[in-house]
Write the structure tokens for this entry.
Amino acid sequence: MTDIDGAVEHVSVVVLGAGPTGVTVATLLAQHGVECLVLDRWARVYPQPRAVHLDDEIFRILGRLGVADEFAAISRPALGLRLLDRSMKVLTEFKRETALSRNGFPQANMFDQPALEALLRTNLGRNPRAVLRGSVEVTDVADDGRGRVRVTYSDRADGSQHVVDADYVLGCDGANSITRARIGSRMEDLGFEQRWLVVDVATSAELHQWDGIHQVCDPVRAGTYMRIGEARYRWEFRLLDGEAAADYADLDALAPLLRPWVADVPACELNLVRVTEYTFRAQLADRWRRGRVFILGDAAHLTPPFIGQGMGAGLRDAMNLSWKLAGVLNATLPPEALDTYEQERKPHSRHMIRLALGVGRAMTAGGEFGNVIRRVVVPLLHRVPGLSAKIMDGVTPALRRSAFVHKSHRPRTLAGALCPNPVLAGGERLDAVLGNGFALVTTIAPTPDERASIERRGAVVHVAAPGSELAQWLRRGRASAALVRPDRTVMLTGDQLAALCDALPESSLPRK
Ligand SMILES: Cc1cc2nc3c(=O)[nH]c(=O)nc-3n(C[C@H](O)[C@H](O)[C@H](O)COP(=O)(O)OP(=O)(O)OC[C@H]3O[C@@H](n4cnc5c(N)ncnc54)[C@H](O)[C@@H]3O)c2cc1C
């Protein structure tokens, strides 16, 4: 990394953007032994709180990063999500387990995004393979088509110009991504745009509310309430035409909106942290890659926050791409492995955006259509087959078929879904035992030759005890063994260990 006139230095991967997606992918790459440089325009974490919820699948990713205990200390499990009518009558409830789920963590977790980002950055700083450079503005990303991508950036303090060459560039540069523009990708509009007021309040007063997310369905003034910490609360309200955040700049102006939740609390006990306006959108980039340049996170997809999945989608992108890229960089996976990133992640993101839009429409749709949704559809949601697994139980859909997801035509195949993460007989969770590479989870003990062949390729074998949670999981999937990818997605299941061993890539990612 040098001045524009000097010799250009080289790093394996430049990550553009140190938001939650960029820091996560850099940490995962560094764990896999890949050197990366992260560039961001700000010196410190962006201070405005945005995301407040993440699910157990995302908590599991935080576990992989090594910050599960630290995150548990700054977060708060929630009971789930309730849709209410404008008189606060409950229309339906999606329960979440505050005890540990099959992923090993509570299913709904409330937090403050800057606090999480600070924790992620501190953790990144512990890995010498990743360097974070703040206060720089990236102005260009250019793939020379011959194996190098040149990133140009300026130092915001002194205006000096710099370039760095990379084998790959990951654009984690948010909604207004320059990387997306440079790869010629366009956002597909999924037909949703609304202005919302976002209010953060601190108070040590007890509000005596149901301890989950309240979504008020009202075509005029939809709203959301949630407790995100011991003394922190978030409200979001749809803004009416002609209204602006400035109309709600203090607690007096906000009082009519907050009243259903704070009626018993004197205003002097409430401390307004901030009030701002966001435009919630639903958009999906039409391409997520060109050559050696990829986009991840908000650069690739935007979702209204009605089911709290936007940031989570970025962390899923990071988890999906990092091991593939590390494998390609150390030549244990073919370059085509990278094609599966968009193939797998784009349909999953689209699905999650659609779920968010479904909740958004229930909350905000006007006219007779909206009334029918709220009065008839919402109360019956519990009875819709398929929805129960997705919204009700908080399990996100399995990945589609790809070179790394071999789906059979048998029903209930486990391929594409996450492997559970139970506590094993030794007291450790499965993820800790499996490490960071491929794994074979099996009820059939491998022969010494099979074991040697698996371990030679850097994979770990776990033989599930009869009757254990993993054995039952395999049985429900009608299989004796599962090949599990580094991101803990099941690649393939079967009854013949030899066939599963053959499918194991020649990966030698570091196990820990
Ligand atoms: C009100 C609200 C509520 C939300 N609630 C939730 C929720 O409950 N759960 C959830 O999962 N998500 C939620 N989200 C979404 C979540 O906040 C985002 O999805 C998440 O922040 C995206 O992370 P990211 O790292 O992809 O992008 P960002 O957080 O936008 O980070 C991008 C980074 O790139 C840097 N950057 C951009 N361009 C350049 C450049 N040219 N040069 C240098 N640096 C650059 C920026 O400085 C920034 O640090 C919410 C969002 C909002 C607005």
About this structure: The longest strand covers residues 187-202. DSSP finds 14 helices and 24 strands in the chain. The first helix runs from residue 20 to 31.
